[in-house]
């Protein structure tokens, strides 16, 4: 099909999707007297419908940014077809709810003033042929009270299931289109990114935050300002409470900040000055971590850094996430400890999901982490309150991880060979191509591998290093570590977490996403990772 035909059909499907959403919400509202929860169901449909409207206007309205063409027309034909298929699926799902409600109205003796029919998808529809999406079914009076039991016991549950399915599909549509907006070749066009940053409909969909991060990544070298602060001014009379070797907490004036220590010259026996290149990399990373980010990144806000000259280290300064106690503990320390006990199955799935979404989101804005491992994943306890409102025991919520430990060479486009490092506690999380003295550039697949190791730890609830009796000290080569981890995943993980979780972990460790002829943005890999790992974990977490 030619691009003009696809565009016409896409307009028609979006308009029909909007009309069906309005009609379904209106029909559901007629049952509000039966059940207070019906209002929430109606609001859910209307919220999703508002996103559909914003998506239509963002994709299809002509814009000077694209020379008077629409954003939709900037995508390749295969992407346009995928968008169209997604929208057809959403229309079909939502139409099920509408038809169910509409049949109920007819059987109760009420007539609708409008009947929806989807257009024939094989017919080209020019813009002028698209019906106005303003009319939807109206009902003159409420359903009879005798139907209350049937609605409460039967139809309401069916409608709730359909609406939940529609909401999930709608989320997938928006995430996929965001990926096509930012993860393809068009995502490097500064004018396009500025348009996503400023456009009202883009802001409704949440595309603006990621566009801003993309801009910050591409312009880090040009517009970064120094976030270095004076150590003495920051600390003043407060003490630094060290949390292991990597972190610290400063408390003062009712507030607290988290410090993350990074060595810039670990082998030097005496203090050395920061060279200009290292200082520049430190500042760039601080600036990028300072940018506003969605919660899906699971990264605290960086507000600056200072130098610990005597230790040849720098300390990044992060705000402690709001609502949490400033007493962090790493995932690695939790895995090693017998107190608290292992989290529930549900918490483990949500932890795995949020970490996989973090990696997916980093890929979207063309970032890599480079040091993704359990010692760089922190939990901040929440405080239980007794009946008098006083704080009691600290509680760890394992579904609320925070990711730190980003390497200096943050953007994916930076050259990153890395230094020689034979530390097994770090190598066990590294892809074989990145162990010892790496010769390959760091890429998305290397972060995915590290995620696979962490997901294996979460599933088995034990540190990766403990999976070998001598901590991999006798490992012959990097590949032997990978094979050993895979054996544990294949033999033990299915029993503990189920075959879906096991399959997602194995895909991360093997990198076998069945991707061929990918583009330089690794778009196919990103899509496959979302489908085979993120979506699988999402469905599993939702079902527990």
Helix content range of the residues, please? 40-55%
Q: Look at the helices and sheets and give the structural class.
A: alpha+beta
Q: What is the global morphology?
A: globular
| Averaged pLDDT | 82
Number of strands: 10
Organism: Dichotomopilus funicola
Protein name: Protein kinase domain-containing protein
Pfam family, one: DUF7580
Domain Protein kinase: 229-529
Description of the structure:
It holds the Pfam family DUF7580. This is Protein kinase domain-containing protein. InterPro entries: DUF7580 (IPR056002), HeLo_sf (IPR038305), Kinase-like_dom_sf (IPR011009), Prot_kinase_dom (IPR000719). One of its GO terms (molecular function) is protein kinase activity. The protein is of the alpha+beta class. The protein has three domains: 3-218, no CATH class; 231-320, Phosphorylase Kinase, domain 1 (2-Layer Sandwich); 335-544, Orthogonal Bundle (Transferase(Phosphotransferase), domain 1). It has 17 helices and ten strands. The strands form three sheets. A five-stranded antiparallel β-sheet has the order 1-2-3-5-4, covered by helices on one side. A three-stranded antiparallel β-sheet has the order 6-7-10. Strands 8-9 form a two-stranded antiparallel ribbon. Helix 14 crosses helix 15 (478-497) and helix 15 (478-497) packs antiparallel against helix 16 (499-510). The protein is globular, with a radius of gyration of 26 Å.
